[in-house]
Amino acid sequence: MSQRMNKDIEKVQHLLFLWMCHYDKINYDTIKRYCEYLNIQFNLQITEHPAWTLFLPLFYAGNVDYCGSKSFKVTEPMMISHKRRHLFINKQPSIDGCKSCVPPFIAVRALRIVN
Predict the structure, then answer these.
(1) Hey, how many other C-beta atoms are within 10 angstroms of the C-beta on 85?
(2) Residue 97 φ/ψ region, left for φ over 0, alpha for ψ in the -120 to 50 degree band, beta for the rest
(3) Which residues 6+ apart lie within 8 Å of 105 measured at CB?
(4) Has residue 4 got a pLDDT over 80?
(5) Where are the alpha helices (DSSP H) in 42-111?
(6) What percent of the chain has pLDDT over 70?
(7) DSSP class of residue 4?
(8) What angle do CA 97, 43, 73 make, to 5 degrees?
C-alpha cells in the first residue's frame, strides 16, 4: 500500500472516529455501511470489507469499545499521569466542529514505564 493511500486511510479513520463521537452506541451494520460510504466518497478503492480496513484498527487500538449486541462506542477519554509525564488516550473532539482535534490514536510524549 502506498504512503499516500495510508495517509488517506488515516484521514478517513479520523472522520469515522469523529462521526462515532456523536453517538452513544452504534450498531456494527451501521458502521459497515458508513465505511462503505467513506470508501466510495474518498475513492480509497478498498475492494473487500472496507470496515475491516477503516474501523477494525480503531477497535484493535482501543479507541472503540464493544458494548454487546453488535454495538460499539468510542472509548472514554482518560489521562494517565506520573510526575511530569502524561499519557492522553482518546482526547475527545472539540465542540466547534472538530477543526483542531487531534487524531484518535494514542500519543505519548516523554512517557517512561517504571516498575
Answers:
(1) 14
(2) left
(3) 61, 63
(4) no
(5) 50-54, 56-60
(6) 76
(7) H
(8) 45
Is there a contact between 17 and 58 (Cβ–Cβ < 8 Å)? yes
For residue range 65-113, what is the model confidence (pLDDT) as tens digits?
A: 999 999 999 998 888 888 888 887 776 665 444 444 444 443 333 344 4
pLDDT score recorded for residue 50: 96
Report how far residue 3's alpha carbon sits from residue 80's, in angstroms, rounded to the nearest whole number: 32
Is the full-model pTM beyond 0.90? no
Q: In what order do the strands lie in the sheet with 107-109?
A: 78-82, 85-89, 107-109
Residues 6+ apart with CB under 8 A from 97: none
Residue 1's pLDDT is: 61
Query: What letter would DSSP give residue 98?
Result: S
- Other residues' Cβ atoms within 10 Å of the Cβ of residue 72: 21
